[in-house]
Every structure is written in structure tokens, then in C-alpha cells.
Design a protein that fits this description.
Length: 392
């Protein structure tokens, strides 16, 4: 016998967002739907398993399909059936955040039923999910939090007018890429770190861990001493690699000529250098060595040195640096300069910052495109084709 046309009469549909105010539990991610399938005469369909498809739209009769899932074997008893929307294909937060009105279309055993069912909330669903730790969502317009003080965020404004916080509302725990500092000392006196060869040796090192890509400014100050009664010179610089060669203009020279007896005299010295680095841990050293023409009785040395490394997340002006030829290829605008009869290159480290920002923006666009493609695939999978049944 040919089966009569069926239709679905709504028993109940509810957003099961039963959030306990005492336990502050997370909002459930599924919606309980219960329906009753009958034939054209109002009699329940025979007990059994049926293919049921669910789709959410932004309009009661037209609109775009925003979500869908297929339940291939929903069991009916006396025509009654139940299903948890989102149990097969998760419900995205975005559709509830973006649309004020949503409608559920049901296809029962290949037949699209009409009218679409409006989705409504139960009592506890009026609590905002993001209050209790949601992983995402969007709020349009100004958000204001009132208590002993007032805090607000207004995306329609610009600059300082877009956010209001108390003067002491932001500290180091909230700013993950704020400036930071590390420092170390070498307490050598009266005998300091003696440079006995042309191979550079460490005077003191400092280590710094940065939370994000940014600039590291390393500075060192010290007392320089040339001991002896003949030609006696040394050099000091900041470097990453141990045993490095002097890199002008970052190294500082000190010493005495052969006609001067200078053994007891101390001269204050200072060196600095700026690096641009990705997030990570780095060690910088104050190192030095003697010059090639020193006499045998020469003992150049460094006493009482301090080295300090500071991290900055961004630049507010030109960050000029001198780099050797092997590093010049990292910059588009490297200009050759002559320093101590050597060819070096003048660069602006902000090129590296801009390059990192472009790479981060490209990665964010790629993530957004991937999410969009995933959403479109899910929509195509669960939404019935346009050539199928139409709403009655």
C-alpha cells in the first residue's frame, strides 16, 4: 500500500542551556529537538528508523543555509522522535552571535517539511555564554562593565577614546610583550679580565628570554686598563658568538703608546648594540682581545664590567645598524659604507619588523581562508541540493 504523505508536528524545541549559577558550568553545545511525525490524516507514522535532515536558515522561507546535519536512522515510537542538534555536526557559535532570528528546516524521510521552526531560548539561555568562559564570539557596539569602577570598550571610537580603564588597570601580567630587562656583572679588581692573545675571550655574559619578536638593546660599561711600559692596546665589543672578530663601529679600543707608562690608570669604556630577534632565549657577551702589534710586556684588561639587555616589542623611529656583508642580503635597502677600511652595510632593522608583521598577517589570512573553506564544505555536505524538494 502506498504510504500517505507525512508531516511533522512540533512537540517541543528548546535550547538546553541549563547553566547552574552555583557551579558556573559551561553552556552545553547542543539543542534538544523533539517532534511528532504523522501522515496526512494525522496518524503517527509506523514505528521504525527514518532518515532525517536538519538545516538552520536565517529566514523563515528563504535565506541562506547556515548549518546542517544528517541523522540517517532516527527511531520513532508512536510518531514521536527526539534528536540532539549538534551531536553529529557541531553547532557554530558564529550563527547565534550574528543572527537575531534562526529557523530550523526538517527533511523527514526525503520530504522537506514546512513551515520552518523558529529557534527560541529557554530561561537560562539568556545568560551570555562568554561570561562563563566561552572560546569565542562577537559583540556589536559598546561593551560597558559596571561595578565599583566603570570599564568600557567602544569599537566605534578611535585611539584612547575606544577603551576606558583605570590608571592602574594594566600591569606586566596583562601585557605579554612589554619591555623586559636582564643584567650581569664582572667584579674584577684590581686584577681584571686580561687579554693575552688576539683571540677574543668573554668578560661577562647575559641571557634574556623574549616573549615575542622584537628588538634587544644590549649595553655594557667597564673600566679599561693598559698595563705595561710599551705599546699596549685592547678592544672590547658586544657579540652573540664567542671568539668573534672586532666589528666596527661596535667595538671600543683602549690602550697606550710605547712612550707612555699607564699601568695604574683606568679609563671608563662603553659599548652598545641593537639586535632584532624572534621570540626565544638569547645570550650576549662582552668580549675582548689584544691587538696584533702589542709588545710582549703588554697586559690589556677589563675591570668591573656590567652588561644589560633590554627587550622592546616595536620601534618608534629609525633603528640604524651596521652589518657585515654576509648579513646585508637580509635587507632590501642595505647601503655600503667604509668603516676602518672595511666595507660594511648600513641598514634599518625596522625592515625585519615590517617583514615579520607581513608574514603574521599572511598567516592570519590563511587561517581565516581555511576556516571559511571548512565551513563551506560542511554547508555543502549537510544542506540539501537546490534540485531537491521545496518547502511546502
Amino acid at each position: 500500500m502506498k504510504q500517505s504523505q507525512t508531516f511533522c508536528s512540533l512537540v517541543t524545541i528548546s535550547c538546553v542551556l541549563l547553566l547552574s549559577a552555583a557551579t558556573m558550568a559551561a553552556v552545553p553545545r547542543q539543542i534538544n529537538y523533539q517532534g511528532r511525525a504523522t501522515d496526512a490524516s494525522g496518524n503517527p507514522v509506523p514505528d521504525g528508523d527514518y532518515d532525517v535532515r536538519f538545516n538552520i536558515f536565517d529566514h523563515p522561507t528563504a535565506g541562506s543555509g547556515l548549518w546542517g546535519e544528517i541523522a540517517p536512522s532516527i527511531h520513532t515510537t508512536g510518531g514521536l522522535f527526539t534528536h540532539m542538534l549538534g551531536s553529529i555536526n557541531p553547532l557554530p557559535d558564529s550563527i547565534f552571535a550574528k543572527y537575531d532570528s534562526l529557523y530550523l528546516r526538517i527533511s523527514f524521510n526525503g520530504q522537506v517539511l514546512s513551515p520552518r521552526v523558529p529557534l527560541v531560548s529557554t530561561g537560562y539561555a539568556f545568560r551570555v555564554n562568554s561570561v562563563d568562559g566561552a572560546s569565542g564570539g562577537a559583540i556589536d557596539g559598546r561593551l560597558e562593565l559596571n561595578g565599583n569602577i566603570i570599564v568600557w570598550f567602544d569599537p566605534d571610537q578611535t585611539g584612547n577614546a575606544s577603551v576606558y580603564l583605570p590608571d592602574d588597570g594594566i600591569g606586566r601580567r596583562e601585557i605579554w610583550d612589554e619591555p623586559g630587562i636582564a643584567s650581569a656583572t664582572f667584579l674584577g679588581y684590581p686584577a681584571g679580565r686580561v687579554f693575552e692573545s688576539m683571540n677574543a675571550v668573554d668578560v661577562v655574559t647575559v641571557s634574556l628570554t623574549t616573549p615575542a619578536t622584537g628588538y634587544i638593546v644590549v649595553e655594557a660599561k667597564f673600566w679599561a686598563v693598559g698595563a705595561g711600559s710599551c705599546l699596549c692596546y685592547g678592544w672590547v665589543q658586544i657579540d652573540e658568538a664567542s671568539g668573534g672578530d672586532p666589528l666596527p663601529p661596535y667595538h671600543s679600543r683602549f690602550g697606550q703608546d710605547s712612550s707612555v707608562t699607564w699601568g695604574a690608570t683606568q679609563i671608563p669604556g662603553f659599548v652598545s648594540r641593537v639586535f632584532y630577534k624572534p621570540a626565544g632565549s638569547y645570550t650576549f657577551r662582552l668580549e675582548g682581545a689584544e691587538f696584533v702589534d702589542n709588545c710582549a710586556e703588554c697586559y690589556p684588561q677589563v675591570q668591573n664590567a656590567i652588561i644589560t639587555a633590554r627587550y622592546y616589542s616595536t620601534a618608534y623611529g629609525t633603528v640604524e645598524a651596521i652589518v657585515p656583508p654576509e648579513e646585508a642580503g637580509n635587507f632590501e635597502n642595505a647601503a655600503p659604507v667604509t668603516v676602518d677600511s672595511q666595507t660594511k652595510y648600513r641598514v634599518d632593522l625596522r625592515e625585519l619588523e615590517l617583514r615579520a608583521a607581513k608574514a603574521e598577517a599572511a598567516a592570519e589570512r590563511a587561517r581565516a581562508n581555511a576556516e571559511k573553506a571548512k565551513s563551506e564544505l560542511l554547508r555543502a555536505k549537510y544542506e540539501p541540493s537546490s534540485s531537491g524538494s521545496k518547502d511546502k
